[in-house]
C-alpha cells in the first residue's frame, strides 16, 4: 500500500511526533526510533513542551529542530490555555494531518489543540498511570477518550484503557516497543564510557531504572542481596540511574550492610556495555509499562528476573526467558537470583531465548511497520 501510494504521487502525510522533552527515558528513545525508521512518505515534525535533555543532540543529528510549547509550572496557569491556542494555530499553519502524543503532560495540551485545529490525534498510553492521582488520571482518561485512536505498548495497559476507562476495544491498539538490535550490539562493542567497580569475580546483577519514585523498588534488590549474603552467596549489583531517592537508597544499602555489594554507577549512556558485564538483569518495579530496560537486558542475552506487573509478562515467560516474581517480595528475588547463579546453563539458555524473542518480536522494523499502518489508517482511512 505504501509503495502504491508513493507510485501514485500521493502527498506525504504531515505528521507531528509530540513528547514532553528529550531527557533520557524509554518514551524518548522510542520516539527517536520512529523518526529514524518511518519512510519518506511522511513529512515529519517534532514538538516538545521543553526543548531540553541529552537526547536533544541526537534529535538534531537526525535533522529535526523541535517546535517548543513551554509550560511554565502548573497546568492550571493561564499559560496552558495560551499554549493550546498557539499550538492549534501552528497545526493549521503547517497543515498538520496527524499528531501522535506520547506522554501525560503533552496530552493535556495536544488533544484540545488538535480538536480546535481539526487535526486527528493519536494518544500514546505507555504506563498504568500509577504515578497519577485520581483527578489527573480522570483528566487523562477523558482526553484519551477524545482521541481518534489510542496506542498502548503493553496488553495490561490496553486492558486498563478498555475495561476501566471504557474506551471501545476497536479504538485501542497494542504496539510493543522496538529495539534496533544491530545498533544495540554496536553500542555494546564500543565498551564502557567509564570504569565499573571491581567485584573480584563475584556475579553481578544489573538494575537499570531512575531513582525518582519508589515504584522502581531498588530497595527490594538490596534486601534480596542481603538475604543471599546471610545464606553464604555473594552477589553484587550495578544500580544504573540517578534521581532524588539516591541518598535514601545509599543509606538503605548501608543499613542492610551491603554497601560493598551495591554499586551506584549513576546515569549512563553505555547501558549495553554494562549489561555485557553482568550475569543477569533485574527489574523490581511495582508498576511498569513496556520496559526498555528489560528489553535491553534481553537483547544483551541476559536472563532477566522481573516482577509480574504491567508489560513485564508480555516480555518474560517464567522459566523460558527469565523469571517472574511478585512485586515487593524480595525473598522471591533472592530465590530467583540463586537459581540463576547456581544453574548457569539454564540461565544462559533463558538469556539466549530472551535475545531471540527480541530479534523476532521486538524489532525496530516491526515497531515502524505497525505505526506506519496505524498512522495511514487514521490520517487517510480511504487509502
UniProtKB/TrEMBL annotation:
Keywords: Transferase. Residues 24-181 form the Glycosyltransferase subfamily 4-like N-terminal domain. SUPFAM superfamilies: UDP-Glycosyltransferase/glycogen phosphorylase. This is Glycosyl transferase, group 1. InterPro entries: Glyco_trans_4-like_N. It comes from the Bacteria. It holds the Pfam family Glyco_transf_4. One of its GO terms (molecular function) is glycosyltransferase activity.
Amino acid at each position: 500500500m505504501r509503495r502504491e501510494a508513493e507510485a501514485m504521487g500521493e502527498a506525504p502525510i504531515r505528521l507531528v511526533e509530540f513528547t514532553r522533552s528529550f531527557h533520557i527515558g524509554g518514551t524518548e528513545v522510542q520516539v527517536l526510533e520512529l523518526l529514524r525508521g518511518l519512510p519518506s512518505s511522511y513529512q515529519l515534525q517534532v514538538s516538545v513542551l521543553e526543548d531540553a535533555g541529552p537526547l536533544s543532540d541526537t534529535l538534531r543529528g537526525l535533522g529535526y529542530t523541535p517546535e517548543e510549547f513551554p509550560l511554565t509550572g502548573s497546568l492550571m496557569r493561564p499559560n496552558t490555555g495560551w499554549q493550546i491556542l498557539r499550538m492549534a494555530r501552528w497545526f493549521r499553519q503547517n497543515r498538520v494531518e496527524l499528531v501522535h502524543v506520547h506522554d501525560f503532560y503533552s496530552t493535556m495540551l495536544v488533544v484540545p489543540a488538535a480538536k480546535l485545529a481539526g487535526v486527528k490525534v493519536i494518544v500514546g498510553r505507555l504506563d498504568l498511570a500509577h504515578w497519577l492521582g485520581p483527578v489527573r488520571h480522570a483528566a487523562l482518561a477523558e482526553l484519551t477518550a477524545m482521541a481518534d485512536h489510542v496506542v498502548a505498548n503493553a496488553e495490561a495497559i490496553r486492558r486498563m484503557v478498555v475495561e476501566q476507562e471504557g474506551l471501545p476495544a476497536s479504538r485501542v491498539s497494542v504496539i510493543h516497543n522496538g529495539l534496533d538490535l544491530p545498533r544495540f550490539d554496536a553500542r555494546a562493542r564500543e565498551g564502557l564510557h567509564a570504569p565499573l567497580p571491581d567485584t573480584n569475580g563475584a556475579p553481578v546483577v544489573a538494575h537499570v531504572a531512575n531513582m525518582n519514585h519508589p515504584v522502581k523498588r531498588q530497595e527490594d534488590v538490596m534486601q534480596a542481596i542481603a538475604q543471599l549474603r546471610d545464606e553464604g552467596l555473594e552477589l553484587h549489583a550495578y544500580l544504573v540511574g540517578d534521581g532524588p531517592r539516591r541518598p535514601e537508597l545509599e543509606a538503605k544499602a548501608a543499613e542492610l550492610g551491603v554497601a560493598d555489594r551495591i554499586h551506584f554507577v549513576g546515569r549512563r549512556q553505555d547501558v549495553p556495555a554494562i549489561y555485557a558485564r553482568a550475569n543477569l538483569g533485574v527489574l523490581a518495579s511495582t508498576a511498569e509499562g513496556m520496559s526498555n530496560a528489560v528489553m535491553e537486558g534481553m537483547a544483551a542475552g541476559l536472563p532477566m528476573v522481573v516482577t509480574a506487573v504491567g508489560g513485564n509478562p508480555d516480555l518474560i515467560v517464567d522459566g523460558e526467558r527469565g523469571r517472574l516474581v511478585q512485586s515487593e517480595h524480595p525473598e522471591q528475588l533472592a530465590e530467583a537470583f540463586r537459581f540463576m547463579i547456581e544453574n548457569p546453563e539454564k540461565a544462559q539458555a533463558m538469556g539466549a531465548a530472551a535475545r531471540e524473542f527480541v530479534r523476532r518480536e521486538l524489532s525496530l522494523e516491526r515497531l515502524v511497520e505497525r505505526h506506519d499502518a496505524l498512522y495511514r489508517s487514521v490520517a487517510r482511512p480511504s487509502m
